[in-house]
Write a structure and sequence with these properties.
By secondary structure, this protein is an alpha/beta fold. 36% of the residues lie in helices and 23% in strands. The strands form two sheets. Strands 1, 2, 3, 4, 5, 14, 15 and 16 form an eight-stranded mixed β-sheet that branches. Strands 6-7-8-9-10-11-12-13 form an eight-stranded parallel β-sheet. Bound molecules: N-(iminomethyl)-L-glutamic acid. The site of N-(iminomethyl)-L-glutamic acid has 13 residues, from α2. Keywords: Cytoplasm, Histidine metabolism, Hydrolase, Iron, Metal-binding, Zinc.
Length: 380
């Protein structure tokens, strides 16, 4: 079965050439089979007339926490009346998650992934981290791997209330990692005041690397700290948040293969500053944008909102923001087959109800997703 998407007003490929006008795409067997001028397009089994709309790769959401139960509206309301965001809020979701059945957790993640797909997201990473016992982290990892494209172990999200920090780190580095590692591709640690310090974070990351997992780090979310330096030193695929960076952090990221994943929806929802995207890009760092969807610090699945914010408030160009939310996320996840629309890429396609991607920022808050293909299948 092949599909010709034709009469594309503006096609963003994130490959060479980066943007085409009056273009067409052919999807076949779940992959992009042809890209070029609409006038030269080959025949296909079915035709979708984009009628001058913009087409781009599906969003790659490289940072979410979707295995959870419960709600933290009250905490959000308190924040909006001036209370600060604290890592300790994670424990509220841990209690609700432990009390939920596997079916309830699966239904919740399915609902959020479907919500994301309906807005143009076609590739989703998600994490454990609301279980914090061996049993609850393993079931979270199984559910994550089943319902998202990539699963990450985040047993080092918070020291469970009442637990001894060093004993908990030993558990994470030993029995918990042994049990979870077969279900996930990545390991992550929340390296921040109130969560895990540099030595504890290093221990977790080294233990994960020894089991063959790729590394990611939550760092520099609530203040400057060792997260970025550690991520770069250990060759992590990404360091996520990067809200508070010193110039040495920016230089370290620019000179490394570690992607700076920025989570602006989280920074707004927690009333933090927005990350220094311009400094990172100007220094030559690779930047990704992701939703950080979770019930505490960032309860949105909207990648368009992140792109809009990046353009309007972080001084990224539309092209930089769209790249960061597609190919940037793919690079952060070590995936060469998503986030772009060259021949051979996964057929993950997003059609906007607009003539250009500029409308994502020009028409903030307007739902612009018109059609979505995921692995070549029309899903919206
Ligand atoms: O990425 N920073 C740590 N973890 C999540 C927050 C989780 C929560 O508050 O429930 C984050 O913001």
């Amino acid at each position: 079965m092949s599909t010709l998407i034709t009469n594309i007003g503006e096609l963003t490929t994130n490959a060479e050439p980066g943007r085409l006008t009056d273009a067409a795409l052919v999807l076949a067997d779940g992959h992009v089979a042809w890209v070029g001028a609409a006038a030269a397009a080959p025949a296909a089994d079915e035709v979708f007339d984009a009628a001058g709309r913009a087409v781009l790769p599906g969003w790659v959401d490289s940072h979410t926490h979707l295995v959870f139960a419960g709600d933290r509206t009250a905490e959000f309301e308190a924040r909006m009346s001036g209370q600060p965001y604290r890592a300790g809020g994670i424990a509220v979701t841990v209690n609700a998650t432990r009390a939920a059945s596997d079916d309830e957790l699966a239904a919740t993640i399915r609902r959020h992934v479907a919500e994301a797909v309906a807005q143009g997201t076609t590739y989703v990473e998600t994490k454990t981290g609301y279980g914090l016992t061996v049993e609850d982290e393993v079931r979270s990892a199984r559910i994550a791997a089943l319902h998202a494209d990539e699963a990450t172990f985040l047993g080092a999200h918070l020291v469970p209330p009442g637990a001894d920090a060093d004993e908990y780190v030993s558990l994470v580095c030993g029995e918990m990692l042994d049990a979870v590692a077969p279900h996930v591709r990545w390991a992550d640690v929340f390296c921040e005041k109130g969560a895990f310090d540099a030595d504890q974070s290093r221990a977790v990351l080294e233990a994960a690397a020894a089991r063959g997992l790729g590394l990611r780090v939550h760092g520099n979310q609530l203040g400057e700290g060792p997260g970025v330096r550690l991520a770069v030193e250990l060759g992590a695929a990404s360091v996520d948040h990067c809200t508070y960076l010193s110039s040495a952090d920016v230089d370290a990221l620019a000179g490394s293969g570690t992607v700076a994943t920025l989570l602006p929806a989280c920074d707004l929802s927690t009333r933090q500053s927005l990350p220094p995207a311009r400094a990172l890009l100007d220094a030559g760092a690779t930047v990704a944008l992701a939703s950080n969807c979770n019930p505490g610090s960032s309860y949105t699945t909207s990648m368009a909102y992140c792109v809009t914010t990046a353009v309007l408030q972080m001084r990224m160009s539309v092209q930089e923001a769209v790249f960061a939310a597609t190919r940037g996320g793919a690079i952060a996840l070590g995936r060469a087959d998503v986030g772009h629309l060259a021949v051979g890429a996964r057929a993950d396609v997003h059609v906007l109800d607009a003539p250009s991607t500029t409308h994502l920022a020009y028409r903030p808050g307007v739902p612009l997703t018109h059609a979505v293909w995921r692995r070549g299948e029309r899903v919206r």
